[in-house]
Amino acid sequence: MLENFRNHIDLHFPHLKEGKFLLACSGGVDSVVLAHLSASYELDFSIAHCNFKLRGAESDKDEELVRKLAIHLGKEIFVTSFDTQGYMAQHKTNLQIAARELRYNWFSQIMTTHHIKTLVTAHHADDSLETFLINLSRGTGIEGLTGIPSLTDTISRPLLQFSRTEIKTYAEANAIYWREDASNENTKYLRNNIRHNIIPKLKELNPNFLENFLKTQEYLGQTQEISNQHIVQLRKQLFSKEGKVEKVKATSLLALKPTKAYLFHFFREYGFTQWDDIYGLLSANSGKEVHSNTHRLLKDRDFLLLKPIALKNSGVFNIEEGQEAVSEPISLKFNIVEAIKETSSNIIYVDKETLKYPLTVRKCQKGDYFYPLGMSGKKKISKYFKDEKMDIFAKENQWLLCSGDNTVWIIGKRADDRYKITDRTKEILKIILE
């Protein structure tokens, strides 16, 4: 196995030979063997062990074994312990999720502090098969059937081509001591049930089942890669971006078949799961939205607009007389000038004597109106937004500069005629949006 491991590292994980990595070690046979194999190949690594304090003295004995292993191999070790039960209660989650979040958050902290780029874990072929069957039982797409990835940006899993039997055989042949976690025998957990009751039956049906499964996963991974490349190219064609907002024509999405499958691939990375609702957006009226935890997807006229969810800033910000600049909620500068010079949508000139201080910067409110510069009569700001074909996101983000209850400037767009420079103006105030 050692020779196969070395060849596997050379071919698929050469980066592990180029710098120090962090090896997660529980004390079980898989991670202990991984540590021995890595040390035998003279790879540079540190060991990290989590004590979840779930099995009393048994958890402490796991920690003791890993500490002795680090000394034996001459490796730096990081150890921590968690109040796992308290974390579960606080975050209202189950044991598996709690343990995963705790350990990976801690691993990330170590890697950041010590400038380590890669975490190495001891997942093996049987783990991948178990994950496949779990996902299959719950319903999944091709991503769930490709198993555990061998490589991500920060995690490497060099044992995925090896079976649990191979790993245990290597440990026994080399007199490697490890700890057995009794909870791994408890079949009340779905993974353990699959491990002890289902996979052995599959291997009885075909002694080469695991080997054939790994080949199938390789083919599925290749198919997924082709699919991902197609989605990336199609996304470049259909989506456009304006600031933080992504925009796609609803009819373009409806033309793709099967539509819901394309919607899944386009929007799943933003946390959406409501595929029927998103499909409904394509033919919905303007203003209808679907939310994930992180993003909003909005129907606006003929388009879907995608935008990260941001904290709403609906406050009122005061600007005192004589103040030359503000940075919140937007950046504005105020200068007294002798005459009107350069002009743009981000610059206005107003008669300072017509202003009532403090000026305010705020969002549009129901009933707001202004007198558009150069026009006679007033206009509701909501009507101005509509005439300008501003989408809902743009309306929500638009700030007004006000004097008392009056609008001085729809900032960056249109000034109010009541504050323009005239023959009677004594002091010209130049206002710049930066």
From TrEMBL:
The keyword Translocase does not apply. The keyword Kinase does not apply. SMART domains: TilS_C. It catalyses: cytidine(34) in tRNA(Ile2) + L-lysine + ATP = lysidine(34) in tRNA(Ile2) + AMP + diphosphate + H(+). InterPro entries: Lysidine-tRNA-synth_C, Rossmann-like_a/b/a_fold, TilS/TtcA_N, tRNA_Ile_lys_synt, tRNA_Ile_lys_synt_N. ATP binds at S26, G27, G28, V29, D30, S31. It is found in: Cytoplasm. Residues 359-431 form the Lysidine-tRNA(Ile) synthetase C-terminal domain. Keywords: ATP-binding, Cytoplasm, Ligase, Nucleotide-binding, tRNA processing. Ligates lysine onto the cytidine present at position 34 of the AUA codon-specific tRNA(Ile) that contains the anticodon CAU, in an ATP-dependent manner. Cytidine is converted to lysidine, thus changing the amino acid specificity of the tRNA from methionine to isoleucine. PANTHER family: TRNA(ILE)-LYSIDINE SYNTHASE-RELATED (PTHR43033). Belongs to the tRNA(Ile)-lysidine synthase family. This is tRNA(Ile)-lysidine synthase. It comes from Arenibacter algicola. The lineage of its organism: Bacteria, Pseudomonadati, Bacteroidota, Flavobacteriia, Flavobacteriales.
